[in-house]
Specification:
Chain lengths: 776, 348
């Protein structure tokens, strides 16, 4: 909310230093998002035009003789056309500093010395288009010679105060002044609401037909003359960001900003039947609001209707038909209270959020309606209006219920014990009625604090006033607990290990456009039905990601200058399922570029699996969406399918414009078995013997199968494939695999004969099982 | 002087010449072969023993053996000398130390994960558990159980992504509080890092998908001071030993009292300026908003079956991107999802 410090000072004697006010507001829970500094003006005073004459040398200039009090008159030339004898106007004297860096120096205008300048609102830093064309008009009641900079407090900053939704009472200047007054320990000067009521003339009737109208205060004011509001009100409104229009409309805006109660004034002559009905809007009911737009209502909105139909949308915006006009003479003040959520739903449905609706939707105190009407009546009376008695329909305004607060509760929550006197003083300063009963307080919140309902709420109030800085930092002792950190620890280890293996973690958005799934399907790849967002802001957010690979492929294509390219992401993927969508944690890695991307990625992922699970991964042929059906390894940790590594599906490689050799892997993080503690195997004391073995096998035989068979020989300590060859020397349909086999016994030094015998057994096994022929 | 003595003297002189002129181990080895080897000069002398009268033979053998041992010792000393000389001269060698080898293959974790790990390390050191939760939540867990009533604006789809009327992408990590408390009785001390979603457009300060870390501690005698203590410690872990924390009153439906957490700006140490220029990290205020916190609202405790008269607790939530931005002086939050080559590596 935009709050001019100039306006705050009307209600409390606050410190001169604006920074102290800003800091205190923040400490009270109202952070100031922005401080708008105002131009620093000097030498602007109120003066009266006592004589007006043509400039002898210029048709478009007039010479004004200005009385600025204390027997001083100035002769000032002006080009403004709205000047007239007897007007009270702002005068910039010689030496004045004005908005926009303008300064006033002695100067001749067409041969005559001009002793200053008559100025417009723009020169005092207010928007020119919000005020009269030409010279700003002041009231004759302002004493001549008054320093207008001090009078209007024009130099004070304007604050943008952040008000939390539980404090609609502070969406008002008085509400914030009240908080500041309590905190600084100064008196709050509430605005006057006294008014002399007129008898009779009271024929208004109001019928309430909806429970969401909780209170409806109405009051007629006649004998009005629509004209500009007094300058003090116009300046305050303009500083607060509200455009002044005329005295009547300005008063409704002024009271809303001052007290937080939105008002509506009906032009009483334009209320048909002098009977207002508060009811649900009808579906499809058309209505023209006072901004000139015709809107179609539905039953979510509440309208205030007269005999001719709706004439205002309750809590949101009035209608054009009963709008205050220049010739309006009589108004009906409406100061109502609405169920907050109802107003918000209506405002959302109409896509119309106003200053009024943003206050009502937070549920205002009932009593504020009566206060708001009385304040408006007082101001309208100042403008010459005759005020009839107020009436109210709906619920009576009752005070919030008393809350019991034990002193020990303050210490229990805050960790320190303010004295009973401190507690009492803190609450009293905020308007709470406090009575002490032994170690407890019976605390009755003031009418504007509907947000306070339990003891913890009062503890916060106490802390706010005595200062959150009183909370002492202590380190708690945490008891041993049953909850573990397994999932997080594993994700951390996966990510850190894979980073150590040369892969960089990326972060992509979990919401994506439909084009991602379309690309995969168009490539002929079957994917599970993705999860749809019901209310995305844009099509880019409509679908939850079904896999991480699409993002990795996009990055690989975008960053094609970077090769080899190793990236991974660890996060959740989503699929439609019954009854609820399913989410699973995936780790996907990509390796693009380099001679054998698949081999590198496969080795890296297997090393990762070994590290994470303590198990030597087992590799089989497999298939996985997005991977080449003939070039995909299924990775097992023990009996658990841990994931897949493979060469990207060539159809995707083409769609994403990445190398056909690009390799992708995905691990199913939640499925990975917990780390199995490996058992120590004492190394043999006897020397190992190496043997190289080359065999020709049919092409379909997997090296992994071959190695597994070799390892069945008890003397084999390790077996590694170090070459794969296809070509004329082994013949069509076959390949040659070369293995290095390390043989070792725990009991004896292996003789050459024993090693050769073991190798012969291996060759026999391979021949039997795979049709392998030893090559020499 | 006997012939033997003469022969040995001559041989020794020749040997010493050869050793003295040797400048490397190879030349010395040649000398060893020539004089002490199987068919070397000494062996020739030894053959002469057979021509001596039998009575002189043992004496001669002894003399030859002694001579051989002396020569071996000299050879050893010479070998040590040339090796030392070679080492000494190798100290003069230089290489181009700026010439890179094959590039290291080291990747990097994402800076947001780094923050989560650092926060988790601090809290686990103090006995907290780190738990993770689903990103698709029931609106009951995301809102109702957290004392956010059905009328709250956040529930009408203004700020939240809905999948169905009863399913939402969690708008904060707080629903995991509810899950953890339902599963485990008090006392409980957990943190919850993870993704959250707000229905918003991405800009320099907002992502519709972001990361939070949630903290929760409930038990007997747990108060606001404990929250402050843990947060001060966390900020020192993240921003260095000078970090300090202050609370400002605020409002959240699920805590009462509630507080915004500010941390003293790591860029200017709270002064608001760096070298007389307004501090870029905090914008001159000297403090940085870190997140929200407060004492768990009694309604939240009740909703998970805890008795608010028996136990109290606190909770907080911070944005991880925000912390990472302050740590690395990043001005545009979108940098975290752009994944420009070198981004994570440069911040690791």
């Amino acid at each position: 909310m935009r709050v001019p410090i100039a306006w705050l000072r009307d209600y409390a004697d606050l410190p001169a230093d604006a920074n102290a006010i800003v800091a205190r507001l923040a400490a009270l829970g109202f952070p100031v998002d922005d401080v708008e500094l105002r131009p620093q003006l000097t030498n602007v005073v109120a003066g009266r035009i006592v004589k007006l004459e043509r400039h002898p040398n210029a048709d478009r200039l007039q010479l004004c003789t200005i009385d600025i009090g204390a027997g001083t008159t100035l002769l000032i030339a002006t080009a403004a056309t709205n000047v007239a004898d007897g007007q009270t106007v702002p005068v910039a004297r010689i030496g004045a500093a004005l908005a926009g860096g303008l300064t006033i120096a002695p100067r001749k205008m067409r041969g005559i010395d001009s002793e200053g300048m008559l100025i417009s609102a723009e020169e005092i830093g207010l928007p020119a288009e919000w005020f009269e064309d030409g010279i700003m008009q002041l009231e004759p009641s302002i004493p001549l010679g008054t320093d207008l900079v001090a009078h209007f407090r024009l130099g004070e900053p304007v604050l943008d105060v952040d008000v939390t939704p539980n404090r609609p009472d502070c969406l008002s200047v008085v509400g914030l002044a009240r908080e500041l007054a309590a905190s600084f320990g100064v008196e709050l000067r509430e605005p006057p609401v006294y008014v002399q009521y007129e008898e009779g003339g009271d024929d208004a009737r109001v019928t309430i037909e909806t429970v969401d109208c909780k209170r409806f205060v109405y009051q007629r004011v006649s004998g009005l003359r629509v004209r500009p509001a007094p300058s003090w009100m116009r300046v305050r409104l303009a500083l607060a960001g509200q455009r002044p229009l005329n005295n009547v409309v300005d008063i409704s805006n002024f009271v809303m900003l001052e007290l937080g109660q939105p008002l509506h004034f009906f032009d009483w002559d334009h209320v048909a039947g002098k009977h207002l009905v508060v009811r649900d809007a009808r579906d499809g009911e058309p209505f023209t609001t006072l901004d000139g737009q015709t809107r179609t209502l539905d039953a979510r909105a509440i309208v205030i209707a007269d005999d001719e139909g709706p004439t205002s949308i309750a809590g949101i915006m009035g209608g054009q038909r009963s709008e205050v006009e220049p010739k309006t003479g009589e108004v009906l003040i409406e100061a109502a209270n609405w169920t907050g959520p109802r107003i918000r739903r209506a405002s959302v449905a109409l896509k119309l959020r106003t200053e009024a609706s943003s206050r009502f939707e937070k549920s205002l105190p009932l009593a504020l309606a009566d206060l708001g009407a009385a304040r408006a009546a007082a101001l309208l009376a100042d403008e010459g209006g005759s005020v009839a008695m107020p009436h109210a329909a709906g619920m009576p305004a009752t005070a919030p219920a008393a809350v019991t607060l034990r002193a020990s509760e303050v210490e229990r929550l805050l960790g320190f014990a303010p004295s009973a006197e401190e507690i009492e003083r803190a609450l009293s300063s905020l308007g709470f009625a406090v009575s002490r009963e032994h170690d407890a307080f019976a605390v009755t919140p003031p009418y504007w604090r509907g947000d306070v309902a339990i003891a913890a709420d009062l503890v916060e109030e106490v802390a706010r006033v005595i200062g959150y800085d009183r909370v002492r930092a202590e380190t708690p002792a945490v008891a041993p607990q049953a909850i573990g950190s397994f999932a997080f620890d594993r994700e951390t280890e996966l990510a850190v290990t894979l980073a150590g293996l040369g892969y960089t973690e990326v972060l992509s958005l979990s919401l994506q456009p439909g084009s991602v799934a379309e690309t995969w399907r168009a490539a002929g790849i079957a994917i599970e039905q993705p999860v749809e967002i019901a209310n995305p802001l844009s099509e880019d957010q409509r679908w939850m990601r079904f896999a991480i690979a699409p993002a990795l492929l996009e990055f690989a294509a975008r960053d094609r200058a970077v090769r080899p390219y190793r990236r991974f992401e660890l996060g959740r993927v989503f699929a439609q399922a019954s009854p609820d969508p399913r989410e699973s944690v995936h780790l996907s890695a990509l390796h693009a570029g380099g001679a054998s991307a698949f081999g590198r990625l496969s080795s890296d992922v297997q090393a990762l699996l070994r590290r994470i699970t303590g198990l030597d991964p087992r590799v089989e042929r497999g298939t996985f969406p997005g991977l080449h059906p003939g070039k995909t390894a299924a990775l097992y940790a023990g009996e658990t399918l841990a994931g897949y590594a493979g060469v990207v599906d060539p159809r995707l490689a083409r769609a994403y414009h990445v190398e056909a050799t690009t390799a992708l892997a995905t691990l199913f993080v939640e499925a990975l078995p917990r780390y199995q503690m490996p058992t120590y195997v004492a190394p043999s004391k006897f020397p190992p013997a190496d043997r190289d073995l080359a065999v020709a096998v049919p092409e379909r035989v997997l090296s992994g199968e071959l190695v597994a068979a070799v390892r069945e020989e008890p003397l084999v300590r390790s077996a590694t494939v170090f070459d794969e060859y296809r070509g004329p020397q082994v013949g069509a349909g076959k390949k040659s695999l070369a293995l290095r086999i390390v043989l070792q016994s725990d009991e004896t030094t292996l003789t050459d004969e024993a090693a050769d015998a073991a190798l012969a057994r291996i060759v026999a096994t391979l021949g039997e099982r795979f049709g392998a022929q030893q090559r020499t | 002087m006997s012939d033997l003595d003469t022969n040995l003297a001559t041989l020794t002189a020749r040997f010493r010449d050869a050793v003295a002129t040797a400048t490397d181990a190879r030349a010395l080895d040649e000398a060893r072969v020539a004089f002490l080897g199987r068919s070397g000069a000494l062996t020739e002398v030894r053959k002469g023993i057979g021509k001596l009268p039998p009575a002189e033979r043992p004496g001669a053998g002894k003399i030859i053996n002694e001579a051989a041992a002396a020569l071996e010792a000299e050879l050893g000393a010479a070998l040590a000398r040339v090796e030392n000389a070679a080492l000494t001269s190798s100290l003069e060698d230089t290489i181009d130390v700026t010439l890179p080898g094959p590039p290291a293959t080291f990747g990097a974790i994402h800076p947001v994960r780094r923050v989560a790990i650092d926060v988790a390390r601090y809290f686990t050191r103090h006995g907290f558990a780190v738990v993770l939760g689903p990103e698709i939540e029931t609106d009951a867990n995301n809102f109702d159980a957290l004392n956010i009533p059905p009328d709250h604006p956040a529930r009408e789809g203004l700020d939240s992504f809905y999948l169905r009327p009863d399913l939402v992408l969690r708008t904060h990590t707080s629903p995991m509080q509810v899950r953890a408390m339902r599963e485990h009785g008090p006392p409980i001390a957990i943190i919850v890092p993870g993704k959250a979603y707000r229905r918003d457009a991405n800009d320099a300060r907002h992502l519709f998908m972001f990361h939070q870390v949630e903290g929760l501690m409930v038990g007997r005698g747990i108060h606001f001071g404990h929250l402050k203590g843990m947060l001060v410690g966390m900020c020192r872990e993240l921003f260095g030993p000078a970090a300090d924390v202050r609370f400002r009153p605020s409002f959240f439906p699920f805590t009462e009292p509630s507080a915004e957490i500010d941390v003293k700006c790591p860029g200017c140490q709270g002064t608001g300026a760096v070298a007389a220029v307004q501090c870029r990290t905090c914008g001159g205020s000297g403090w940085i908003e870190l997140g929200g916190s407060g004492m768990v609202h009694p309604n939240v405790l009740r909703s998970v079956g805890y008795d608010p008269d028996e136990v109290t607790g606190w909770a907080f939530g911070c944005g991880l991107e925000r912390i990472a931005m302050k740590r690395h002086d990043i001005n545009d939050i979108r940098a975290f999802i752009e994944n420009v080559p070198g981004f994570a590596e440069g911040l690791a």
